[in-house]
Automatic annotation (TrEMBL):
<dbReference type="InterPro" id="IPR025421">
    <property type="entry name" value="DUF4148"/>
</dbReference>
<keyword id="KW-0732">Signal</keyword>
<feature type="signal peptide">
    <location>
        <begin position="1"/>
        <end position="21"/>
    </location>
</feature>
<protein>
    <recommendedName>
        <fullName>DUF4148 domain-containing protein</fullName>
    </recommendedName>
</protein>
<dbReference type="Pfam" id="PF13663">
    <property type="entry name" value="DUF4148"/>
</dbReference>
């Protein structure tokens, strides 16, 4: 039973990997007017900001007040 589940999971991941790889842009040829551009991820492009310790503490208190932490705790406990 576990062997078939592992084989099915492997097949699903392999299929997803091939589908993701086929979405990559094709290299531009010399006859085309526009060249394919590739971008690398940098922290500045995503708008990610560093949080202070006070910011993280404030988010923790908010999560405790609105019940997010209790909900996550029950999810991971399995009950």
């Amino acid at each position: 039973m576990k062997t078939s589940m592992i084989a099915l999971a492997f097949a699903a991941f392999a299929t997803a990997g091939f589908a993701h790889a086929s979405d990559a842009p094709a290299a531009a040829t010399a006859g085309q007017s526009g060249a394919a551009q590739t971008q690398q991820w940098t922290a500045n492009q995503t708008g990610a900001m560093q949080k202070t310790r006070a910011d993280v503490r404030h988010e923790l208190v908010q999560a405790q007040k609105d019940g997010q932490l209790a909900q996550l705790g029950s999810l991971y406990r399995g009950s």
